Each structure stands twice: as structure tokens, then as C-alpha cells.
Amino acid sequence: MNNLKIINNKISAIQKTKQITRAMEMVAITKIIKIKRRINNINPFINNIYNIINVITMKNFEYSQLYSMKRKIKRVVFFIISSDRGLCGNLNLKLFDKILLKIQYLLKKNIEIDLIIIGNKGYLYFAKLGFNIIDYLININHNLLLSDLTNITNILIDLYVNKKIDRLYLAYNKFKNNMCYIPLLNTILPLSLDIKLYNDLYHKWNYIYEFRIEKILNDLIFKYVKSNIFCSILKNMLSEQSSRALVMKNATDNSINFIKKLRLIYNNIRQNKITQELTEIVSGSSFIVIYFFYF
Fold first, then answer.
1. Cα 181–chain centre separation
2. pTM for the complete prediction?
């Protein structure tokens, strides 16, 4: 009976775990829907800002050299976006490996490295490795607003404009599908201009600007960098929740399979005990019949 009780307790514990993993999977799926909606809302804004910057920059190159001209690289900043929580597979580790490969390459060229990190996992990982972290933001929620990134964006723009850094990298996980997430390392500053896009828009672009081009361009660059970071955070959140939903689904399926195996073992032991008891009863009754027959 002790074995049956132990197995029964294990089945109850796994059923409770299954309920938790199933609930976490459903929560992750709900968040995925909300995050996708936010990404779809901000993507047109980023694309339009980039189009405007591209045309203004190409038509007024004397004002745009600060943001588009590539300088000799002496110092760079990595803006790293990671998750605050675990239970999302190897999502963070793949991104960190890609970043470390780039950092090792830059260090061989005697280029100084600074980090700005979003997410607790990234902060703990790179702080342990001893990198210089100039700013970080942890415990962010899924109701993050664009205005929450104003201070960090100001720091980045000031560093670049004052030539304290020569390049800004943005590292995050891009969601491809429910089974695949791509770790990306993009260059945000200096800007990469699209000549083909400019040629397509040039003849349609006939606007008169009320303010100085320099001021307009500075404002647009600030909004572009901030919205790009914001969208990248959302994409990383989407990858995180999708990965967590998959991990929790696998955990739920494993729990179901484990419960089936334990119930099979439970039923086998119970059946063996019943068979043994029946055998003992039959043997006992046979002994009684023989006893009365002879005596």
C-alpha cells in the first residue's frame, strides 16, 4: 500500500504542476496578441519617420553629416534588450553569444565598449563579466510607454553628438514564428541611408519646412532612435512570450505523458495486489475443503 500511496501523491503533484504550466501558457498567448497589436501600430510610424529622415538627409547633406557620416571607431555602445524573467528557453543565451562575438572582435582592435541594458537577465550576465554598464532598466512591464525611454534616448544622442561614442548597436531577438527567434545586432547610429528609396520619393517630395532643417532633423533623429528602441523592446517581448508559451506547452505535454505512465504503474501494482489476494483466498478455500474432506 505504501507504493500505491507514493505514486498517487506523485500524480497529484504533477497534476498541480500541469495546471500551473497550462495557465502560464495561456497568459503568454494573451500577451502575444497584445504585443503584436502594439508592434503593428508603431511600425508605420517608424517607416514614415525613416522615409522623411532619408529624404531630408540626402537633400541637405551639410546638416546630416553628424548622423550619417561614418567616423573612425574608438568607442561604441551596445544597447542590449533581454528579458527580466527566465522560463523562456535559450532565448537570452543565443543573443548574448552573438553580442560577445562582436565585442571580442572590437576589443582586438582596441575599441572601448560601453553597455546600456534592458532586462534583469542581461544586466546580471554582463555585470558578472565585468563590462562597463553606463545605464540599465530592469523590471519593465508590458505596458511600457514610448515616453519611458526619453531619458535613455537623450543619453545616447548626447554621447553620439558630442563624439564620445562613434557607433550605437542595438541587440535584441526578432520574432520570426512560434518556433524561431532571430538574435539581431543592428547599427542605429550612424544612419544607413537608402539611395533607392530617396530616388523613389524625390519627385513626390515637395514640402516647405517652417523651421530650420537642422532642428527638424535633430527632432526626427531623436524620435527615430527612441521609437526604434521601443519597437525592438516589443519584438523582444514577443519573442520571450512566444518562447515561454512553447516551453510551457512542452512542460504540460510532458506532465500529461508522465501522469499516464504513473497511472499505468499504479494500475499494474494494484492489479498485482488484487491477483495476489485472490490467489491467497482461493488457496485458503482449497485448504479448508481438503481439511473437511479428510477430517
1. 8
2. 0.82
3-state secondary structure of 225: helix
Coil/strand/helix, residue 95:
helix
CATH class label, 40-248: alpha beta
Distance CA 91, CA 94 (A): 6
In this structure, what C-alpha cell is assigned to residue 270? 494494484
pLDDT digit string (tens) for 238-290? 888 888 888 888 888 888 898 888 888 888 887 777 777 666 666 665 555 55
Residues forming beta bridges with residue 81, ordered by sequence position = 118
* Long-range Cβ contact pairs of 42-49 (< 8 A, separation 24 or more): 42/146, 42/227, 42/230, 42/231, 42/234, 43/231, 45/227, 46/224, 46/227, 46/228, 46/231, 49/220, 49/223, 49/224, 49/227
- Residue-range domain boundaries for the chain: 2-18+250-294, 40-248
* Cell digits of residue 257: 505523458
Residues of the chain with pLDDT under 50: 1
Strands 133-137 and 180-189 come out as unpaired
Pick from 256, 189, 279: which is nearest to 18 by CA? Answer: 256
